[in-house]
Amino acid sequence: MTELLLNEAIYHRIMAELVPSTKKFLWIVTADIKDLHVGKGLGIGRKQRFVPFLEILSDLVEQGVAIRLIHAKEPGPRFRKDFDKYPALINSDLFERILCPRVHTKAIVIDGKQAFITSANLTGAGLGAKSPHKRNFEAGILTDEKEHVDPLIEWIDSLYLGDHCLKCQRRQYCPDPIA
């Protein structure tokens, strides 16, 4: 199955439906990372509230989900302030975060079974619960086809392990080389 997602459909399918239902691991690769809020608390008799996406990640870590977050630059100040509110992200070995200035990819891998490859960064305007009149215009492909998911997993893993670090000719711009 391959599914094209556009604009606010990305938020509904990926951020509201698939990411919160992750069971084993969630890998997120993005160039830009900013304050991002998503809905939480949908259900009978419950009103939805909007929370930092970091709260969703923290909930997943507390449920035993391993999370890797790879991004190209330091997050914005609101993201950094919110990050400190979630001790599970700071103290758990299940949450791993690395910075690589060469990353321009935007992808999310869910449980090794589905991959979302997109133009959208991990920002409110890209993936967040913003009004359709304030969002960026974004597109992405959601797939569960192994011939796409497996090579993406291998590639993200090689980034995470620092396979490209030692030969990187941009090391002088890297604030925290992996290797």
CATH architecture: 2-Layer Sandwich
Shape: globular
What is the first-to-last residue Cα distance? 37 Å
CATH topology: Endonuclease, Chain A
Number of strands: 9
Order of helices and strands: EHEEEHEHHEEEHEH
- Would you state the CATH class? Alpha Beta
Strand content: 15-25%
Can you identify the CATH superfamily?
Endonuclease Chain A
What strand order characterises the main sheet? 1-9-8-7-2-5-6
Structural class: alpha+beta
Radius of gyration: 16 Å
Summed up, the helix count is 6
Question: What kind of assembly state do the chains in view correspond to?
Answer: single chain
Helix percent band: 25-40%
Number of domains: 1
Q: Gist?
A:
The protein has 179 residues and is α+β, with helices and mostly antiparallel strands. It has helices spanning 8-18, 53-62, 77-83, 87-91, 124-127, 146-160; strands at residues 2-6, 25-30, 37-40, 49-52, 66-71, 95-99, 107-110, 114-118, 139-143. The protein is globular.
